[in-house]
Amino acid sequence: MKSALFAATAFFSLAAISQTAFAEDAPYVDDRSDAVAVIRSLYSAINRHEFARAWDYYGDTKPAKDFDTFVKGYDSTDKVDVKTGAASSDGAAGSIFYNVPVAIQATDKDGEAKVFAGCYTLRQVNAQVQEPPFLPILIDKGALKPSTANFEDAVPASCGDGPPPPKQDTVLEQARKAFVATYGDQCDKQTPDGKPTTEPDAYSLHYKDTNAGADEPERETRLFRFFCSMAAYNESAVYYVADDVMGVRQLQFASPELDIRYENNNSEGKVEAVHIIGFQTDDQLVNSDYDDKTRTITSMNKWRGVGDASSTGTYLFRNGNFSLVQYDVDASYDGEINPQTVLDYNTAP
C-alpha cells in the first residue's frame, strides 16, 4: 500500500482495489440523503471498483489532479472498511457545510491492514434556490492521517474545535422511520401539548432470559411510545420495541372479543354475563401508559365520556416481550365505575 499518498494530500488516496471477488460481493450503496450516507456511498464505489461513481461524489475540488491519477492511486489496496461518527453542520452563504468524523481500515493485497482517521467536509447548496442541473450533497474536502488506534476506536470524537456532536440514536431513528412509514398519514403531527408525534417516549428495559445462566449478561429491550391521535375522550398510541435479535418491530396487543348479555337485551340495563369468545390483536392502545416500576403497559378504553363503561388491558413485560395478563370490563352504563376482571394471568411466572 502506498501510505505516503495519505500524508501527501488533503484528500485521502488509497491504493486501487484489486480485481477480486470482494469487489463483486461488496454491497452497492448510492445514498445522498445525508452527509454520512455520502461517505458510505463513496467507499461502496471504491470497494466495487466503480471509480467514476466515487469521483462523482466530489464537488469542484477533486481528490487528485485528474481521474486517471485518482484511479491509479488504488493499485495495491484489496478492500477498505469505514466507520463514521455523527455529523455536525454550519450554514454559510446559501449552503450547509457538514463535518463528518471518519476512520478507515485499508487492507492491501498482502493482507496488511492500516488505520487512518480524520474528517470530511461536505457541502449542500440550498436545494430551494437551485436551478438545473441539481447539485446533491458533495464532498468538499477530506483529510485522513495514519492512526495508531484500533479501528473500532479510531473515529474522532468530533471535527474542528467545537464540542462533539450528540451521538445519533440509530435504534430510535429506525423506530421513528417505521412509525412514519406506517402512520405518517394516519396519526396527528403533534401531541396535544405541541410536541411532534415523531418524538416518542422512550424506555430501556434490562432483563435476563428465563433460561440464562448466572454468568450471562443482561439483555436490553428498547420501548418507544408514539402518540397517534386524540378523540373526544380517548387518546391512541402506537408502540415499538427493539432488541439485538429481532431489531425494531411494532407491538401488537391481544384483546378478548366479548359477548355481553344485558337484562332485556338493553345495554342500559343490568349486566347478566360477560363471556370471552375469542381474541383479536390491536395495533394501537387507547389511553395507555407504561409503568417502568411494574414493567406494564395499561390501556383503558372509555366506552363513553363519563368513563362508567370501559375495558382495561394490562400487558406485562416478560422475557423480552409484552403479554396480556389481565383484562377488566365495566359493561354497565350505570354512572358508577365498577369493573370486573374477565381474564387474569397475573399468577403466571
From TrEMBL:
Keyword annotations from UniProtKB, A to Z: Signal
Region (Disordered): 186-214
Keyword match Signal: yes
InterPro entries associated with the record: DUF1176
Biased composition (Basic and acidic residues): 186-198
Signal peptide feature range: 1-23
Protein name: DUF1176 domain-containing protein
